[in-house]
Amino acid sequence: MTVLVGYASAHGSTREIAERIAARLAERGVEAETASLDAVGDAGGYDAYVLGSAVHGMAWLPEATGFVHTHRGLLAGRPVWIFSVGMPAALRGPWKPMAPKEEPKVTEEVLADLSPRDHAMFSGVVAPEHLPGAGRAVFRAMGLRYGDYRDWEAIDAFADTVAGSLHPAPDSP
């Protein structure tokens, strides 16, 4: 069984998460390949898919939604998991309760074409150079914090769930 861990990344954080998921799958005996979704050659050459995207403007990046839309027939017949990389962990104060409300909006367009087995929302990295000047001003005015908010334990747990579904542990005596 070969799994595509495909991603759309703007600044590299989502790519690094995808690479971590693929490495964790390999540690669990599942063959996995990592590729940018706009560079996947033969999408039909995989038995299962873990697809992820950075979240900008409360939506997946266009190359990720485009991949899902283009290959929806293929993906419908195979196991698929998805993950999104946004900034819920950067939210503070009155903005923090908004984090759980982000997921349905983020996945809305993707779920129109896809019925994944699971979705995980991870926080990524946000740095001043990732935002335009006006974006930095709004970010500061909202009291948000720059930083690397990736929760590697949660990412590993997600990958372990995928691996367990694809390569179940043998029954113990």
Relevant CATH superfamily: Flavodoxin domain
CATH T-level fold name = Rossmann fold
Percentage of residues in helical conformation: 25-40%
If you average the pLDDT, what whole number results?
86
Low-confidence stretches: none
The counted number of beta strands is 8
Number of helices: 6
The CATH top-level class label: Alpha Beta
The SS-based structural class is: alpha/beta
Please name the CATH architecture.
3-Layer(aba) Sandwich
- String of helices and strands: EHEEEHHEHEEHEH
Separation, N- and C-terminal Cα atoms = 26 Å
What is the radius of gyration computed over CA atoms, rounded to a whole number of angstroms? Answer: 16 Å
Report the sheet with the most strands, covering strand number, pairing sense and barrel closure.
Answer: 6 strands, mixed
Pfam family, one: Flavodoxin_5
Protein name: Menaquinone-dependent protoporphyrinogen oxidase
InterPro entries: Flavodoxin/NO_synth (IPR008254), Flavodoxin_dom (IPR026816), Flavoprotein-like_sf (IPR029039)
GO molecular function, one term: FMN binding
Topology:
Blueprint: E1 2-8, H1 13-27, E2 31-36, E3 48-56, E4 59-60, H2 62-70, H3 72-76, E5 80-86, H4 99-111, E6 118-123, E7 125-126, H5 133-141, E8 147-148, H6 152-166
Parallel strand pairs: 1-2, 1-3, 3-5, 5-6
Antiparallel strand pairs: 3-4, 7-8
Helix pairs in contact: 1-6
